[in-house]
């Protein structure tokens, strides 16, 4: 064999038609199908056609129609992407981590406490330190589930669900502790973080109401880091190998216990960052349930993004847009925000059932390509 | 039932697996299908059993064109296939696996396993398969799992049986029994397709032979008109030598030694019972034995995948009884696992990723925390070329390689490492004659360079051809030892020892 054939062997595979169908066409059709079903739901509940039209226009306007809409979309997307990246990492390592919600809460809480405790520090130190505290505590909280799995065999789905419940209650409890609770308040609410701990708003010079903040840079860095970790690093190779085939990973001398704990910890760090991003970028303090279900929406984001960092980025942006647009929908057309939740869920159902999408939109796909042609 | 394949072509993207294949399969006949690794045999049969739809061409059943929209259709048409790689649910019992997909239910949708169990028993008795209907599949050795697959097809009363390398995992005695089954089925009027890489088997059992190369039929004939060398040449396109050439035996010091090694299975039964064995450098030690006598556990304990309950493993003067898998790799132990599909490689990983599955951390392939993928790809491409692995690129998913080429991938990875001791389970299972020739050469080259080699194989001919010393394992013990350099070893004596006669 010659050098040219060596080069042929190393030529990366062109992205084939079936990959395009999988990565782009199925999600696109899933969104369309979900929007159509959303419209049908509205029709069935006696919303007239004009209002439905109006609401979808509002959805578009509220998500990308103006600078402030885009700002809202990005603000909503940032924590979803961060936590989604963590979940994607876990999925790749074969861990079905349901605990992002709890990790978001714990991470956010840690960031708030760090923020209002070290008020004397300058922004250049306090802000990164608060973020770091969020990541660290998220990582620790998630590793509990990892450790339980390794040491006792407790499945992470169960343990992370329980850890979520614990996190909710722990948060409520902590918010009433004297050194955390805001002075002079009887309800559970934490002290506010000083400006020096906050993620600065990026477009405040144009309009102080534009909420988009420096967290989006954090998001971009996280996407790049997770990509690097998964596909370029030794540790990521071990994550992926253990996720794909634990037996082969063991055969190759990888230490499965350590890998499980590390993967959970990385996932928790990202979820913790998502929490810190919320309290330092948007809320400024912690309140009961401030996570607002980010940790659960992020599961959908990770699945929609096929557990790929770039996919998670786009999926998170889509969900952010739906959220921002959904609020506009409610304002302009008086349609309930719950409808957006329905549409989001429908998108996931369609993505999870590609055969359904192919059946509904047969003209979008090459004939016969549905066959599973893996293995022998 | 007669089947006619007309002009079948099957492409996977740029890869053409079958090109314009015509084949006829007749009832009451065994069609032997022969071809190199990656020639397209499995693909062709997957088309016939409805798993793949052909890119072009048609299938005629008794002269009537048929299209299958999945394996269910083919089964209903009476075509059943035993796949090269088992498709069993590990946590189900044998009976549950057999009825899977065709469950009979009684009133209130109650699963009627009792009847199925009786039927499995009947099939068992009829063909002498000796499979416990209530055993969990994950606890069965590979050889028995194979028989479960056969029961599955028989249970579905197929008229056409496709057997993709069924004998690859059987012992010689089992093969004889298995041939009795095939003959009985043929005499009962079933049509059979039998794929194998073993030329003597095909000459023994086939009524007609078709040879496939690069996706095309390149030769057809009757067994009585063909010889082994002729078949080999038809397959590979060049003459193949069946002889093994070794340098004179010059063993060095003891490399591997086990002292009173005792190992338990997952079920806490004794797998290895106070076993003592040594491998010297420059020596090939072959372990013969009927599957299930502790060979798998032996390999696992030597490579660090299983803990010893008692005794010691010494390597190169060092006690490695408690050493990790990774550390043993570093010390220079290479391992070709007997189950390449579930242990040896990761199907969804690329050829390149699999090529460094246990060396990615090595200085050759990594920079700090980073894997140097450019280097990995380059080196992998070199291995692909050196070991003649048939793949369009190193980015192909390993699961898309043909069975034999998957094995070559594993062998390439393990043999290209810096090693002192090579432990190989079934190193040539499922390989074509050309590749076997090549891998035997590599194993012998390792020995000639001073490596110790421990081979566990159910292929007695392979053990006899390669080994300097032959050990026979029975019920977790070494029951006989033969020095192959002292003169010819009596094959039937080994056979008797394998059956426990010496114990
Ligand atoms: N799903 C797939 N996607 C891409 N290529 C494939 C796929 N399945 C098989 N191939 C390719 O088609 C060719 C034929 O493969 P096939 O498995 O039919 O070979 P085979 O004759 O059964 O070989 P072996 O004796 O090694 O099992 C090979 O080059 C293989 O890489
Ligand atoms: Mg095959």
From TrEMBL, chain A:
The membrane-topology field of this record reads: Multi-pass membrane protein
What the entry lists under InterPro entries is as follows:
ABC_transp_permease
Q: What is its main location?
A: membrane
What subcellular locations does the record give? Cell membrane
Cell membrane in keyword set: yes
Could you name the domain of life of the organism this protein comes from? Bacteria
Where do the TM regions start and end? 20-44, 64-91, 98-118, 124-142, 154-171, 210-231, 252-276, 310-327, 339-361
Species of the source: Puniceibacterium sediminis
Q: One GO cellular component term, please give it.
A: plasma membrane
Q: Which UniProt keywords apply?
A: Cell membrane, Membrane, Transmembrane, Transmembrane helix
Q: What is this protein called?
A: Nucleoside ABC transporter membrane protein
Give the molecular function GO annotations.
Answer: transmembrane transporter activity
- Has UniProt tagged this entry with the keyword Membrane? yes
Offer one Pfam family short name for this entry: BPD_transp_2
From TrEMBL, chain B:
Give coiled-coil spans as residue ranges: none
Q: Which GO terms describe its cellular component?
A: plasma membrane
Q: Does the keyword Membrane apply?
A: yes
Q: How does it sit in the membrane?
A: Peripheral membrane protein
Named from the GO MF annotations, one term is: ATP binding
Q: Does the keyword Ribonucleoprotein apply?
A: no
Q: Where is the ABC transporter domain?
A: 3-239, 256-500
- Pfam families named among the record's database cross-references: ABC_tran
Per UniProt, the keywords (alphabetical) are:
ATP-binding, Cell membrane, Membrane, Nucleotide-binding, Repeat, Sugar transport, Translocase, Transport
Entry protein name: Nucleoside ABC transporter ATP-binding protein
């Amino acid at each position: 064999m010659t050098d040219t054939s060596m080069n042929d062997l190393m030529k990366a595979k062109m992205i084939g038609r079936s990959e395009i169908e999988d990565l782009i066409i199925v999600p696109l059709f899933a969104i369309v199908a979900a929007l159509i079903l959303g419209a049908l739901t509205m029709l069935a509940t006696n919303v007239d056609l004009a209002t439905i039209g109006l609401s979808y226009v509002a959805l578009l306007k509220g998500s990308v129609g103006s600078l402030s809409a885009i700002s809202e979309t990005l603000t909503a997307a940032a924590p979803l992407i961060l936590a989604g990246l963590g979940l994607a990492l876990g999925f790749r390592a074969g861990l079905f981590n349901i605990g992002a919600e709890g990790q978001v809460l714990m991470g956010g809480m840690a960031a708030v406490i760090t923020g209002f405790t070290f008020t004397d520090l300058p922004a250049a130190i306090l802000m990164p330190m608060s973020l770091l505290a969020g990541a660290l505590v998220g990582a620790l909280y998630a590793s509990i589930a990892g450790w339980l799995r390794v040491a006792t065999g407790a499945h992470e789905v169960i343990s992370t669900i329980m850890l979520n419940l614990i996190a909710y209650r722990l948060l409520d409890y902590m918010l009433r502790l004297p050194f955390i609770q805001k002075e002079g308040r009887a309800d559970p609410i934490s002290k506010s973080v000083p400006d020096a701990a906050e993620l600065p708003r990026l477009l405040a010079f144009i309009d102080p109401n534009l909420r988009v903040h420096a967290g989006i840079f954090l998001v971009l860095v996280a996407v790049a880091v997770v990509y690097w970790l998964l596909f370029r690093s030794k540790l990521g190779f071990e994550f992926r190998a253990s996720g794909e085939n634990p037996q082969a990973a063991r055969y190759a001398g990888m230490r499965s216990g350590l890998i499980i704990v590390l993967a959970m910890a990385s996932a928790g760090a990202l979820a913790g960052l998502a929490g810190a991003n919320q309290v330092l970028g948007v809320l400024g303090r912690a309140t009961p349930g401030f996570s607002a279900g980010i940790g659960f929406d992020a599961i959908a984001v990770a699945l929609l993004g096929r557990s790929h960092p770039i996919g998670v980025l786009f999926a998170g942006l889509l969900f952010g847009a739906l959220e921002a647009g959904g609020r506009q929908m409610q304002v302009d057309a008086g349609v309930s925000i719950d409808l957006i939740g329905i549409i989001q869920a429908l998108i996931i159902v369609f993505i999870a059932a590609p055969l359904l999408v192919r059946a509904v939109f047969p003209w979008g796909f090459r004939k016969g390509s549905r066959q599973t042609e893996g293995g022998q | 039932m007669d089947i006619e394949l007309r002009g079948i072509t099957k492409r996977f993207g740029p890869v053409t697996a079958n090109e314009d294949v015509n084949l006829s399969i007749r009832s009451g006949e065994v069609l032997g299908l022969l071809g190199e690794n990656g020639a397209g045999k499995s693909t062709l049969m997957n088309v016939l059993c409805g798993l793949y739809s052909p890119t072009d061409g048609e299938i005629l059943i008794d002269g009537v064109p048929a299209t299958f929209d999945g394996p269910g259709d083919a089964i209903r048409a009476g075509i059943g296939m035993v796949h090269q790689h088992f498709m069993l649910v590990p946590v189900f019992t044998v009976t549950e696996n057999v009825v899977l997909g065709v469950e009979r239910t009684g009133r209130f949708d109650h699963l009627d396993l009792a009847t199925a169990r009786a039927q499995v028993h009947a099939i068992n008795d009829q063909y002498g398969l000796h499979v416990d209907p209530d055993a969990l599949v994950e606890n069965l050795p590979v050889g028995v799992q194979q028989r479960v697959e056969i029961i599955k097809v028989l249970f579905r009363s197929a008229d056409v049986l496709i057997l993709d390398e069924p004998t690859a995992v059987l012992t010689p005695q089992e093969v004889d029994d298995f041939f009795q089954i095939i003959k009985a089925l043929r005499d009962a009027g079933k049509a059979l397709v039998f794929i194998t890489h073993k030329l003597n088997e095909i000459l023994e059992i086939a009524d007609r032979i078709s040879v496939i190369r690069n996706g095309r039929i390149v030769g057809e004939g009757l067994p009585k008109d063909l010889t082994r060398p002729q078949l080999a040449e038809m397959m590979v396109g060049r003459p193949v030598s069946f002889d093994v050439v070794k340098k004179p035996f010059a063993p060095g010091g003891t490399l591997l030694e086990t002292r009173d090694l005792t190992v338990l299975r997952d079920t806490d039964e004794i797998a290895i019972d106070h076993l003592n064995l040594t491998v010297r450098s420059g020596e090939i030690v072959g372990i013969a034995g009927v599957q299930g006598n502790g060979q798998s556990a032996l390999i696992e304990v030597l490579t660090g995948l299983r803990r010893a309950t008692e005794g010691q493993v010494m390597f190169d003067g060092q006690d490695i009884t408690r050493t990790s898998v990774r550390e043993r790799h570093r010390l220079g132990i290479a391992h070709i696992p007997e189950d390449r599909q579930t242990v040896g490689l990761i199907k969804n990983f690329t050829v390149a990723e699999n090529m460094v599955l246990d060396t990615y951390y090595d200085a050759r392939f990594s920079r700090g925390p980073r894997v140097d993928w450019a280097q990995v790809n380059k080196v992998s491409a070199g291995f692909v070329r050196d070991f003649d692995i048939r793949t369009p690129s190193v980015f192909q998913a390993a699961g898309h390689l043909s069975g034999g080429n998957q094995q070559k991938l594993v062998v390439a990875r393990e043999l290209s490492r810096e090693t002192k001791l090579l432990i190989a389970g079934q190193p040539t299972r499922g390989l074509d004659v050309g590749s076997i020739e090549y891998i035997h050469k590599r194993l012998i080259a390792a020995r000639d360079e001073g490596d110790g080699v421990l081979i566990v194989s159910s292929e007695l001919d392979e053990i006899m051809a390669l080994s300097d010393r032959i050990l026979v394992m029975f019920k977790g013990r070494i029951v006989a030892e033969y020095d192959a350099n002292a003169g010819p070893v009596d094959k039937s004596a080994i056979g008797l020892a394998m059956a426990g006669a010496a114990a």
